[in-house]
Amino acid sequence: MPQPNMQxxxxxxxxxxxxxLAAQEALxxxxxxxxxxxxxxxxxxxxxxxxxxxxxDPEAIDPEDVEMxxxxxxxxxxxxxxxxxxxxxxxxxxxxxxxxxxxxxxxxLPGL
Length: 112
Fold this sequence. Notes:
Strand order of the largest sheet: 1-2-3
Radius of gyration: 20 Å
Number of strands: 3
Helix content: 40-55%
CATH topology of the domain at 25-93: Ybab, Chain: A
Order of helices and strands: HEEEH
Number of helices: 2
Distance between the termini: 32 Å
CATH superfamily of the domain at 25-93: Nucleoid-associated protein YbaB-like domain
């Protein structure tokens, strides 16, 4: 059985690493949005999980019911983060999927 070409495997791993870095950089420019309370609270998050903005409709501000506003902000933020994680998984997962055929299946990259 022929030995795997170590130089070829290293080259493949290096290219994959460059592709991963490029994809991670691109995620910083992608923004997902989620809302709660029928659009009363909107949260925007980048693909690298940075909350960019939180918009609250003035009608959502009820001094008698602060908990409702807190719940809407929490729900919108969690949904936006979940969407951003899905986006990252779809972008980075395709690159990591290339590991299987190169004999690097057990490499185990963090965060994937």
